[in-house]
Amino acid sequence: MWNFVKERWDLILYNALQHANLVFQAVLVATIVAILLAVVVNKFRMLESVANTLSAIGLTVPSFALVGLLLPVTKIGATTAFICVAFYATLPILRNAVVGFSQVDATLLESAKGMGMTELGILMRVRLPLAWPVIHAGVRTSVQMSMGIAAIAAYVLGPGLGGYIFTGLTQAGNENAVRYALVGTVGIVFVALIADLLMLLLGRLTISKGIRA
Amino acid sequence: MTETGGTNSDRAISGAELRLDNVVKRYPGQKVAAVDSLSLTVPAGEIVTFVGPSGCGKTTSLKMINRLIEPTSGTILIDDQDIRSDSATSLRRKIGYVIQGGSLFPHMTVATNVGVVPKMLGWDSAKISARVDELLDLVGLDPDRYRDRYPRELSGGQQQRVGVARGLAADPPVILMDEPFGAVDPITRQRLQDELISIQRELGKTIVCVTHDIDEAIKLGDRILILQEGAQIAQYDTPENILAAPANDFVADFVGAGSTLKQLSLTRVRALDLNRPTTARVGDDTAPVMQHAEQAGDETVVVLDDRDRPVAWPWLRQMRNNPTVRGEPRENLLTIDQAATLNDALDTMLTSTHSKVIVTGDRDRYLGVLDFETVTDHMRHAEREAAEHVEQAQRENGVPGQGRHERTPEDSHD
Question: Which of A41, B165, B260, B335 is deepest in the core (most CB within 10 A)?
Answer without folding.
Answer: B165
